[in-house]
Amino acid sequence: MSATLSIAEVAERTGLSKDTLRWYESEGLIPSVRRDASGYRAYDDAVVRMIELVIRLRRTGMPVRDAKAFVAMARQGAATHGRRLALLREHRQRVLAHLAEVEGDLHAIDSKIDHYVDLISQGRDCADQVVTDLEILSQQRSSR
Description:
66% helix
């Protein structure tokens, strides 16, 4: 992207509202956005990439204060590469721990789905008794 984007274009591209983009800027979650000759925000490629990164960091649970710290370090240049790397590695470990937890939760859900598939296919209730009532069997097989 060589041309700049308006706030509306960045909002559409990122899924953030214009108000959220303004708030991100005022809170230091993204670098300051330059203004065009008319005073409107003009987002360049570097700022848009930072917004997209901040969205990912926040979506994966990075606290606002850490995301702000990352952006502040980025403004300071290459001297902060090591600190930014450390911050991202720490966050990565938290994300991996959360993924493991979610995978365990997904496994439990899959097991429960398998349990109900088995009960329905065998025509049994939760006490593992055969269901003989045709109305209950019909309802058992219904997803509504």
